[in-house]
Known about the structure:
The structure is a homodimer.
Chain A lengths: L1 H5 L18 H7 L37 H24 L8 H28 L8 E3 L5 E3 L3 E7 L2 E9 L4 H11 L2 E11 L3 E10 L7 H13 L3
Antiparallel strand pairs in A: 1-2, 3-4, 4-6, 5-6
Helix pairs in contact in A: 3-4, 5-6
Chain B binds a DNA duplex through helix 2 and helix 3.
Amino acid sequence: MEISQLIGMEDPYFFNSQWGLMDDSVNMAxxxxxxxxxxxxxxxxRPSKQLKTSSDQQQQxxxxxxxxxxxxxxxxxxxxxxxxxxxxxxxxVPGLKKxxxxxxxxxxxxxxxxxxxxxxxxxxxxxxxxxxxGKSTHDDEGGRTLLLLPEVEARFWGKDVLIRVxxxxxxxxxxxxxxxxxxxxxxxxxxxAMAFATSALDITVVAQMDKEFTFTIKDLVNxxxxxLKRFM
Amino acid sequence: MEISQLIGMEDPYFFNSQWGLMDDSVNMAxxxxxxxxxxxxxxxxRPSKQLKTSSDQQQQxxxxxxxxxxxxxxxxxxxxxxxxxxxxxxxxVPGLKKxxxxxxxxxxxxxxxxxxxxxxxxxxxxxxxxxxxGKSTHDDEGGRTLLLLPEVEARFWGKDVLIRVxxxxxxxxxxxxxxxxxxxxxxxxxxxAMAFATSALDITVVAQMDKEFTFTIKDLVNxxxxxLKRFM
DNA sequence: TGGGACACGTGAAAC
DNA sequence: TGTTTCACGTGTCCC
Lengths: 232, 232
């Protein structure tokens, strides 16, 4: 409120010392990049230059009848926001040596690229590497293994999936297992079930993930285990 | 807080061509953060030579006269570099709706955070998956296990033995595996071999120990692994 | 018409 | 010393 009164004397155009430099804005037109902002030759309307001292606050408005200092206030706010985000960005980039804006941007770009690459390779590794998951077993000290059936194990290689189930021999357990697998958008390629000892069953399934479907080994194993448990 | 500061220094923001403004540096103090220099191979599409127009503008410059135009050019170059990096950064951030600088920075920050989080969870997933690795592979220490083919796993139930072998698909590997098993005085009851992915083979064998013969799971697994390794 | 975004030139300050 | 980076106010464009 009172601010507007305090700076009534905006009276711009103080540095018309080298006004001839301004027609260089024509050249700037082709320097400008990306966003299609075209600078016009800038007619540069000559305002009646009259420098007013600070004591004189005659509020006359030549052309710019708009708010004179809301503009600079808004610009300050914009700069402040930008600076804050620069700081926030620099806080996220590790090993930042130089803190100037260009370096922050440059290192952030490099770091972002490396992160994208890392995510890519990690995702590949997760889905393509051979991994066992979700063995519900506990090793005791003797090297023996206590079996908490059902035991489910899966490994991925791209879209191929190998699933092993070791469970108690029960009627319809094979059908139930295959149905569970199919519910995960897996196309069964091959399967075998072998009896082991007196009451155990060892099921092996090779399947393929349907296109556009991805899930983690962990989820698959957990879902199969909990699904089979309901049958036990 | 900041508003009071801004209002308080509102007045000294005016300018005349003289050298009379000094307290401007006071308010700069809390925002300013200076930086070292940095140079990089930059395309610099346009040198933008400042050619002298017919209406030469050299005059006055009471005291300064140091480098009036190099400064402008340097600043232009700096801005150009910054803008270029903004464009490069915006090209890396997917799903960018608004293209203004603040949005680019903000979205880049959010994207960077999400990538960091993703890397973290992915790395966790990979290591956790490795922790769960079962008995068959090489290194037992620290709960970690190296995933080295061939993987061999065996379990006993009385005289019954279940053996699983996951190995590279090679000719005669099944026969070799069965031969190795038989050398351990194991009578093969049932067996199956399933191809998995492009070059893997998953063999499951159910056998029975011959009378009078006993050995530990560990010995059986190790012998099978070393025997199969010679084939790889 | 008014607020948001941008590039500009400029003075100051950090090496 | 000069080179480099910064924030500032400003004009202008664009919704």
